[in-house]
Amino acid sequence: MISPDYDDSTAFLGDWGPFQRTVFALLCLSMIPNGFTGLSMVFMGDTPAHRCLIPAALNITDEWRNASIPLEEDEENRDSRFSKCSRHRMDVVKNYSDRGLLPWVDVNVSDIPQEGCLDGWEYDTGTYISTIVSEWDLVCSDNWRAPLTTSLFFCGVLTGSVISGQMSDRFGRKKVLFVTMGIQTVFTFIQVFSPSWLIFCLLFFIVGMGQISNYVAGFVLGMEIFSPSVRDIYATLGVCLFFSIGYMMLPLAAYFLRDWRMLLLVFTIPGIFCMLLWWFIPESPRWLLSQGRVVEAEAIVRKAAQMNGVNAPDVVFPLNQTRENAGRLRTYSLCDLVKSSNVSCITILLCLVWFSVSVGYCALSLNTSSLHGNIYLNCFLSAAVEVPALIMAWLMLRRWPRRLCLSSTLSLGGLVLLFIQLIPQHMNYVAFSLVMLGKFGLSAAFSILYPATAELYPTVLRNTALGTCSMASRVGSILAPYFIYLGSYYRSLPYILIGSVNILSGLLSLLLPESLGSPLPETISHMQTVVGLNFINKDDDEKY
């Protein structure tokens, strides 16, 4: 329908002029808020050390106050610790205290009956002033609410993936980018004033919808504006690197702002400044052409030519051809991803890969609070390890086939995680190094996955397809907190599961078509075929 020679038609602009550099920088800056918003639960949802509250008004001796919390065995560290969820019955303790009896001298404290934390909990404030866990007592019988909070955020991300892809293909990349950026910023600000856990979760769900929507729309916008030589660096050292920069800002901000409400309030500031970029970031000319809006597309290209100091031809896009195409325009939707065998197979394979990478990436990122060492340093290292991973991904994308890039990074990330079960418990730093190496591999795979996916789908379906694949990945994100939770039963179980599914995905990725050096397809008929699917009837694709 649309000529596949878009890159040839705009080649006179050059690859890296002032126009491209400006759009590149502004789109990358718009990605920073996504880094700290998406992983803020590492600190907001962390569980401080806690134990049952003994009311200050309760008139008992200091000896009995200190003996009111029973000791229990810590199987992981093989020592004793104060119970987090129970205390000795206060009526019995007060009776002994009033009679002047001493614990362990006159009374065997371990024989005193226990009860739950009827007066609430007291939390250690050495690491945090407050988190949502300490604010709403999401511990003991309610400890399931903390991972559910994270999962609800990713449910919002999933919903945003479904909606925003189709909205972006229908109404444009730029509009969806800034509308959803506004949603993310405004509802993050409203979250600061959440009166209850339920309201917080509802707002967090909406923030998740905005977060993924502006990330995907911004990514696709850049992929469609830039030339093939710039797309690889934009996908890796562009959007992914600036996402990681936002991620690295998270532990720095959390270190100085130990209250979760103040932390959220600060997170809204970058979003406000990013909203001002509306007047500087153009719509995708490629998308405008797919909608038959030739005059608007040419206006953007001519402005780009003026910025780059080059002369545009009298006719950038053949008007007679695009008018003919406009008369045959049709609306594409999620259904078009399953209307032909080839597109269906590509979509299923990519969804499986996206799911696996997302489970691993999110679980490893969210689990930094449980690793040995300082939580702030661990989180920063988890973010910083993505920088060399992205550099490696960029170098691989320049030379290696996409399939080999995906398969090797997925296999690396999965394989090292399987080795963690072999590390003795006292060798914490070795296990930590393997976790970071696994995060290195999966971060590289994630950054490769975005351009590899975008290059396989045509312009008319690209944002919808990316949204669908992102939806599959968010199913993985929703499950990631519960993968971590399995570690309470067997320490290495999360790593065994994550490693296994990513090695399997690495093998499946070898079945995908190769897109290295190929122009971005404009219609479904221009798409390449899945490896081994030679029996496909190409006429099915030609219809679209």
Automatic annotation (TrEMBL):
Positions of transmembrane segments: 23-44, 199-221, 233-256, 262-281, 375-397, 404-423, 429-452, 464-486, 492-512
Q: Which PROSITE patterns match?
A: MFS, SUGAR_TRANSPORT_1
Give the matching Pfam families: Sugar_tr (PF00083)
UniProt-annotated location(s): Endomembrane system
Keyword terms, alphabetized? ATP-binding, Glycoprotein, Ion transport, Membrane, Nucleotide-binding, Transmembrane, Transmembrane helix, Transport
- Chief location of this protein within or outside the cell: membrane
Where's the Major facilitator superfamily (MFS) profile domain?
Answer: 92-517
Top-rank taxon of the source lineage equals Eukaryota
Q: Which GO terms describe its molecular function?
A: ATP binding; quaternary ammonium group transmembrane transporter activity
Q: Is ATP-binding one of the keywords UniProt gives this record?
A: yes
Q: How does it sit in the membrane?
A: Multi-pass membrane protein
Instruction: Tell me which GO cellular component terms the UniProt record holds.
Output: endomembrane system; membrane
What GO terms describe the biological role, i.e. biological process, of this protein? monoatomic ion transport
Task: Provide the leader sequence positions.
Answer: none
UniProt record similarity statement: Belongs to the major facilitator (TC 2.A.1) superfamily. Organic cation transporter (TC 2.A.1.19) family.
What is the name of the protein in this document?
Answer: Solute carrier family 22 member 5-like
Which species expresses this protein natively? Answer: Sinocyclocheilus rhinocerous
Taxonomic lineage: Eukaryota, Metazoa, Chordata, Craniata, Vertebrata
